[in-house]
Amino acid sequence: MYQDFYDILHKEVKPALGCTGPLGPVYAAASAMSILGGSDIKHIHIRGSKNTVGRNADVGIPGVSKTGIPMAVCIGAVGGDASAGLEVLRNVTPEQKEIAERLADSGIVEVEMDLSINGRYVELVLETEKGTSKVIVATEVDNVVYQEVNGKVLLDKPYDIKKLNDHSKALIRQHTIKECYEFAKNCPIEELYFLRDTVSYNSKMADYALQSDTGAGIGRGLLEISPDDMLMRAKAYAAAGCETRMAGVQLTAMSVCNKGNVGLASSLPLVSMADSMKVSEEVLLRAVALSCLVSIMTISNIGKSPAMCSCMVSAALGVACGLVLMMDGSYEQVQYAFSNTFVNSFGVVCDGARQACAMRLAVGTGVAVDAARLAMKNVHLPFNMGVLGVDMEDSLRFLGVIGQGPMIATDVALCEALFEKAPMSKK
């Protein structure tokens, strides 16, 4: 059983440079250029799902000063490295940045949103002096399922467009949160040393914003309110990491389920609390492992492109459970922390990646820490009441039913309004 959890963590916890929201278009453009070539980009047409192009007009892109989908595809085509996965923009040069910004302003990019598609989907056609190429990225930000150059098909992997956001067969769905807890608490600590990168990378993100004028100043502001309060420090640290990422600073974050903000939200509150509580690295890594696993299990129910805010809904649950482990709580107290958090984060709507996410990370952290502290006092909300199911797994199934059912109509309307409201490229 432990091998499953190692495999899940290694698959779902990985580095990402920049917000993963617009990285699908970035990666598709980089892939299209890699198979076509050329120096004169004449036209780019992108058709994306509501989750891909409807929510990502305001988030920063590493290395450039503009935001928006046209900017994302132009920097991907001009400077992207498709072989680098989620770090596709790691080698962008200043010259490539200038070229991409001019192209984004020139109007050569045509953006189409397909409201019928729920999940991660990008279909991109690139035209240069060497002809045209077509690339489709689906299910994951960096998962190319189709490639075509000048009419010749190079790759055609099967996928079901109706099930892009369905992760019901995910490996973690074969397990329980109790098994996640037992693994995190008892596995050989050496097997979790790879999570040191999660602590290190994400801490650098938070430290950057706290030591600069990056973002809206939410992290710094929270810290100034009450610098000696451990809860406020945890909220500030989570918010600051998010602000760095949303601003497009060229620092790598460790993502969870291809979601950088979930990676930050699942780990940074625990890093801060571990520092305040003076716990060992081993205890911190075990807490982060449990937090990530609970977040992954939650996302397997609501999907990787949900109508709900993954940071509030999944990462808060992860942090609450991880913090109980950090405080040497029992499995029963993990259940208590889960139920306390679940009712306070259920159904929070996602309006896309932007600086406002930092506020949500702070709020989610506050909910999680309060829930865990109450759980350690054996204070809890009973299961099978309201949105809570009979146990944790049943609660997550119910969450998924609502998130991938009736909330989709709300999500469609929201994404359509956001797409119409925002210009495609912003300075």
TrEMBL record:
One of its GO terms (molecular function) is L-serine ammonia-lyase activity. Its EC number is 4.3.1.17. InterPro entries: Ser_deHydtase-like_asu (IPR005130), UPF0597 (IPR021144). The keyword ATP-binding does not apply. The keyword Lyase applies. It is an enzyme of class 4 (lyase). Keywords: Lyase. It holds the Pfam family SDH_alpha. Residues 84-412 form the Serine dehydratase-like alpha subunit domain. This is L-serine ammonia-lyase, iron-sulfur-dependent, subunit alpha. It comes from Enterocloster hominis. The lineage of its organism: Bacteria, Bacillati, Bacillota, Clostridia, Lachnospirales.
